[in-house]
Amino acid sequence: MNLTTTAQAILGAAAILALGGIALARIGLARKVRGILITGVALLFAGGGTVLAWAIVEGAGAQAFAVGLAAAILPAPILVGTFLWLGRYRRRPWLVLAFCFGWGACVATAISLIVNTGASILLERNDFDPNLAAVVSAPVIEEIAKLLGPLLVYWTARRHLTGTLDALVYCGLAGAGFAVAENVLYASGAYLYGAQSLDAAAGIAQVTILVAVRGLATMFAHPLMTGLSAIGLGKAARRPGRKGIQTVWIIGMLLCGMGLHALWNGSSVLGVNLDMPALWFALYPAFLAPLFFTMVGAALWLRAADARRTQTVLAPLCAAGQVSPPELASLATFSRRAAARTWAYRHAGKPGENAMRDFQRAASDLAEQYDQASIGRPWDGRQIEHAVYRMNAARAVYAGADRYMPPALWDGRQYHITFPDGQVRAVEAPSQPVMPLPVAPPPAYPVTYA
Questions:
Q1: 417: helix, coil or strand?
Q2: How far apart are CA 17 and CA 111, in angstroms?
Q3: Would strands 414-418 and 424-428 be described as parallel, antiparallel, or unpaired?
Q4: What is the pLDDT, as a whole number, of residue 1?
Q5: What backbone torsions phi and psi does residue 401 show, to the nearest 5 degrees?
Q6: Pairing between β-strand 408-410 and β-strand 424-428 as defined by DSSP bridges
Q7: Cα separation of 236 and 1, whole Å?
Q8: How far apart are CA 124 and CA 337, in angstroms?
Q9: What is the pTM of this model?
Q10: If we measure between CA atoms, which residue out of 387, 322, 319 comes closest to residue 359?
């Protein structure tokens, strides 16, 4: 592929700035040179986008590119929204999320386009079917290219990638970005084929069929394949300091993703060569669809595990009298968290609901710090202090808002409840936590919620 001089210049400048920024981030100076890092990444994305757009416009024309872009954007909110929803209960910087999506859409696709085009030419020159590049080179380069973005997050901002759920969110967004950009390429080609065969209406019909198949039925194919790599990356994140095991997990699951990708592409290529177009349609419900739903179940289980971990990790705070048993139980599942927010809204209005939501997020942030310490990673004392402050400040909004609930304190073993006669009596905790009974925070935590 012959790139334009402009694209070469953008890619060269972007690579220098981005690699320089990443190196500085790796040694802990990212905050001081944040502008260089952001500029380099932006240029890198611009260079990758230029390569992809130039290749499509040169091959199919500007009109086909515009139609393909519009068609590819249609399923994008579903793809992106799925992974944002999956990780919405953890505070993840939007810049990191946008980086992973942009990496998949701009950089990974540009790298894959160049390598796959070169592989097709090489195969054709050696009297092989150029379509074999979809089985030989595409699974390898595309899975490596997609994984590189989350790997950069892991290497340079490890505090934001602490487990498998984080890895699934970041790798899923990279796969979603790749799928959207690839859909632009294929939709543009479909429009050109239909328009050249008949007219523009036929081109639109071809694009509609493509969107129905690729944009709806198989839109999660790339995130699914990258999701296998995410499992390895997440397992590596839970084993700090054990380089050998980290490498085995990452490379091993990357190879699994490549194998699945090769099977996916190979079924189409083999079906065409054997004049068996139904081969892919047989493979999809027999193997790929069950695997997809298995991954969905695993992702939902990991998401629920985050809530369960919060309850487990913060159990010592309950024994210390800083969190009451009902509060701890309310953090155990997301349905219980929703019920707690509903209760806070009923008795303290919207400010109470916002406060309960911040209490839950602060509890999750605190649990994450304790969890990191449990696997040997350093924790941030300031983050812990800030999380405890937020929990107490949030509790001040809704504690006592229910006029039917007597004032109560929890000392780690018993409740101290103020009865209607004004006497404070100690009451043993029931065998099952009664929700809600928040512990009144000390008066040193004033707070206002708009």
A1: strand
A2: 18
A3: antiparallel
A4: 40
A5: -70, -25
A6: unpaired
A7: 36
A8: 59
A9: 0.83
A10: 387
pLDDT at 213 over 80: no
Amino acid identity of residue 248, one-letter, is V
Structure tokens given for 29: 């100076």
Task: Quickly tell me which residue has 């099952």 as its tokens.
Answer: 432
Q: Which helix (H) or strand (E) holds 418?
A: strand 414-418
Peptide bond between residue 420 and the one before it cis (omega within 30 degrees of 0): no
In this predicted structure, the answer to whether residue 136 has a pLDDT above a threshold of 80 is yes
Tell me the H-state helices in 198-242. 200-210, 221-237
Closest alpha carbon to 168 in 305, 25, 336: 305
Nearest 5°: phi and psi at 428?
A: -65, 145
Tokens for 130, please give them: 């150029």
Residue 352 and residue 400 in contact, taking contact as beta carbons nearer than 8 Å: no
For 315-333, what is the HEC assignment? HHHHHCCCCCHHHHHHCCC
Q: How far apart are CA 43 and CA 11, in angstroms?
A: 7
Closest listed residue to residue 110, CA positions, set 136, 147, 146: 146
Q: What is the C-alpha separation between 122 and 119, in angstroms, rounded?
A: 5
Q: What is the mean pLDDT of residues 182-210?
A: 83
Six-digit token pair at 116? 């796959």
**Rounded average pLDDT over 67-87:** 87
Give the C-alpha separation, 324 to 344, whole Å: 16
Question: Of 355, 356, 341, nearest to 449 (Cα)?
Answer: 355
Which amino acid, residue 225? M
User: Judging by beta carbons within 10 Å of its beta carbon (0-12, 13-18, 19+), is residue 5 exposed, middle or buried?
Assistant: exposed
- 150, 171 Cβ separation under 8 angstroms: yes
CB contact at 8 A, 231 and 163 = no
Does residue 212 surpass a pLDDT of 80? no
CB 362 within 8 A of CB 394: yes
Is residue 197 within 8 Å of 124, Cβ to Cβ? no
